[in-house]
Write a structure and sequence with these properties.
The complex is a heterodimer of chains A (104) and B (151). In chain A, 88% of the residues lie in helices and 0% in strands. Chain A contains three helices and no strands. Chain B has 151 residues and is mostly helical. Chain B is built from four helices and no strands. The longest helix of chain B is centred in the C-terminal third of the chain and has 40 residues. Classes of the chains: A mainly alpha (104), B mainly alpha (151). At the A-B interface, helix 2 and helix 3 of A face helix 1, helix 2 and helix 3 of B.
Chain lengths: 104, 151
């Protein structure tokens, strides 16, 4: 999805390069339309990447757990500690971001 | 602009198409790592990692100036309830792993020793099961808020 958006944005940039070739009476309108399209592509990409982000992370965790289960492998203490380190780091970052948001 | 409605329709289509496409309705798009676990320690591990991913996502939402303050506070409240549950889960999982290692090590020892480590392992497993169950509700609450925000 993000690749498709990137390709659309590149196409848009390429189309913008042809703007001087558009007859003068339509050039302003064409420019406005390209501008609007660029803005909404950017907004849509942002929404898609946020949804993708969590899904990708959860899919990666699931794949790791599935591999563990298929191999009949137990979780080691180091792996568990690493997971908790990630939780603590995420929690600290979250609380800091929240404090900044409350202050601002 | 001569055709504002056409431009608006194009804008809406271009905005919503990628977001809707990324949901991939009808497929298992949002993965549940805990469901893939087959043992209690794998379940604890999956839950901790999944929780970390959810908090990372919540951080992005809180950092977004467009998010309403009330929603940020609700996220904060949910995180404050879920993180201690994750800490308890980690402690219980560590205790379980040590009890399991003791049990494995006692396999060649006396019957009394095997019995003692087996009892300790059963208690640790029960506590870990309780910790997983206790952590699931607050983590699910934060996850629900994150998903609600993403629409």
């Amino acid at each position: 999805m993000l690749n498709l958006l990137l390709q659309l944005q590149l196409l848009l940039a390429a189309l913008s390069a042809f703007l001087p070739l558009v007859p003068e009476e339509y050039r302003v309108r064409a420019g406005e339309i390209l501008d609007v399209v660029a803005k909404v592509l950017s907004a849509g990409g942002s929404i898609a990447s946020n949804v993708d982000d969590l899904a990708v992370k959860l899919a990666a965790i699931r794949a790791e757990v599935e591999a563990m289960a298929a191999a009949g492998r137990a979780v080691s203490e180091e792996q568990l500690d690493a997971a908790m380190v990630r939780v603590r780091a995420a929690s600290a970052a979250f609380r800091e971001a929240r404090q900044t948001a409350e202050a601002g | 602009m001569r055709h504002p409605l056409r431009v608006l329709a194009l804008a809406c289509a271009l905005t919503f198409t990628p977001a809707c496409a990324s949901l991939q309705l009808g497929q298992t798009r949002i993965e549940n790592p805990v469901a893939a676990a087959q043992t209690i320690d794998q379940r604890a591990y999956a839950l901790l990692h999944a929780y970390a991913a959810i908090v990372e996502e919540a951080t992005d939402i809180v950092a977004d100036p467009a998010t309403p303050l009330a929603f940020k506070r609700a996220l904060g409240q949910a995180e404050r309830a879920a993180t201690p549950a994750a800490e308890t889960l980690h402690v219980a999982a560590t205790a379980y792993m040590r009890a399991r290692a003791d049990f494995d090590a006692a396999s060649g020892a006396s019957q009394t020793s095997i019995q003692r480590t087996a009892t300790a392992l059963a208690i640790a497993a029960r506590r870990l099961n309780e910790a997983v169950a206790a952590a699931q509700a607050p983590i699910a609450e934060l996850e629900g808020l994150v998903r609600a925000h993403r629409g």
